[in-house]
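just leaving the lab so this will be short. what follows is a protein written twice so to speak, once as letters and once as structure tokens for the fold. can you read through it and tell me how you think this chain folds. anything you notice is useful, everything is just below:
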Amino acid sequence: MLWEIHEALNNVDANIGIGWRIVRQIDKYLMNIPDGIDSYTREKAFDMQIIQRVLTKVRGSEDQMRELVGKTTAEGKHEPGKLENILDQYSDSSPFEGSRQIIARKSKELNLYGFTV
């Protein structure tokens, strides 16, 4: 999944992507979550790592980012882009609820400002 996200990001801008250091940090983080904590599962932790380590890289103009984050219609309905399609393929790893909210927010930013930060 991380490789597919890396390729999607890298196709938009050759300077962004997911490096091996980030992959190792995500892995180390997930491996150090204690068992038996119902309030913070590995699924939630993986979602949080995508938000913190990957989605922070998704910033740029509408021309660059529209395909990645999707489109928000005038009625406020969100149409998914490449990133959400990738998350859908790996929904058995996590529902990625937080990541989806961030992506939808970035899509709205594109509509309002013409860029996302």
Q: What stands out?
A: Residues 84 and 100 are 7 Å apart (CA to CA).
